[in-house]
Fold each of these.
Amino acid sequence: MSTHEADHPAYPPIRPRLSVEELLAAKNTQPIRSVEDLAADTFESDEELEEFLAFTYAERHRDVT
């Protein structure tokens, strides 16, 4: 069996080192200009949000005694 490097590629693959600016440009990102830029309609209603918050609270405190 051969143990030549061509037989065993590097893991993880070697990637070129890019600057933050180059990475952002590759993803075509835009700067955040206001809090509204971060807004998302994740929940369809206030009730759905309340259910999620209650579930999250209950899960976080489930094993706390």
Amino acid sequence: MTNGQDEVRMTLRVSRDSGRTWGPLTEARVGDSPVLPNGPGGLPPCTCRRCAERNAVDSLRRES
């Protein structure tokens, strides 16, 4: 380890089918660049009626 750059900060596995199967183990290390979502809404964006209406109003405000 050089200056702690190889130190593992977090490990995770993702399930996309309610825990029946899991993807490969992924490690986030100290020196890795963070992966950030494209928008401030997070991943995935919320599609509930309230958020959809708010996003529609916000998009109209930005265009005006």
